[in-house]
Amino acid sequence: MHSFQPHFEPPALPTVATAVAKQWQEVKLSxxxxxxxxxxxxxxxxxxxxxxxxxxxxxxxSQQNNTTQAQVATAAKLSTFKAKQGDTLPPVVLLDAAxxxxxxxxxxxxxxKPLPQWGQNAYHAAGSAFAAACKAHNLKxxxxxxxxxxxxxxxxxxxxxxxxxAINGLYESTIRYRSKPDQTAHLQSLQLTLVSAxxxxxxxxxxxxxxxxxxxxxxxxxxxxxxxxxxxxEAPANVxxxxxxxxxxxHIASLDPKHFSLVVLDEQQCxxxxxxxxxxVAQGSEQPLKLIHLTYKSDDAVKHKxxLVVLDEQQCxxxxxxxxxxVAQGSEQPLKLIHLTYKSDDAVKHKxxxxxFREIVVVWMICFGVARVVAxxxxxxxxxxxxxxxxxxxxx
Length: 396
Fold this sequence. Notes:
This protein is of the alpha/beta class. Helix content is 36%, strand content 22%.
């Protein structure tokens, strides 16, 4: 299993391996395999009910004997499995050609629709359902077989969505601070097989095993960034101290020192820079002040810019925001208007909102997760890049 730095992200994630098959005959339903269950993704078009007889018309099942097909169809009927998005058919124990038991699990995709560019999709829902099934049935090693979708780009997006949702779903934050160690089984390995007629390593984004592996790795990387954010947000205040967050930033920066630089200022350095308000607030805590400045520098030209502007009361008056100023006068706290601006080459979008302190903290921790994703992508893109040795926090 992958090992990570303790305390800043989950200590281990399932290993993810990929393979490409030319046809479904290469995907074996056998009790001799090293996995606990074979999982296939089926859509509503794979289920039929003719003359009162239900059947699952999937290419993998069509090559099995009639008894096996009947067992799966009966199990689907008894469990009311309709292959809708997010549906799960619990493992069905079958006998292979040699008479050895093997488990088959079905995940529903619903009716086929082109994957949206953003947001959840059928494969994201299937990944979440897969994670729930692994927990419910104590699966340690699983094998998931995929159909190749109409386009290579759509196939890559589907694989990424499935892997990301699966790894996020497998994580349980509730066991982190339990007094007793967790004794339940956890998924240790995930084998993914893409059944495609094209197996050339240069045949598009998922035309070969290398492209398939890249799509799966992207899902793992996105999940790592999300889990880093969750790991920080769920930590109690006596754990997630300023010193702890500074160490988390150091951990992220050490993953890709070529592109990340880190400066952590202590109380005296903040005083020297005239940050009296920040120093004053920090004096209400026994924890030492840490101001974290994590910088990412891209090798490419900057195409997108984000600017954060904070306006005070007088600036709001100058801009004609009399109503806002009048409302703010009912509070002892000074008026602060946060103006977050995002600018791209294609369009300019503005979003203005007064954020509560808790929201700002959560958004800031999400930035840690984004940085974790960026660092992982850079390391994956440049395999020779070293993660770098441990180092002390740099000074200003």
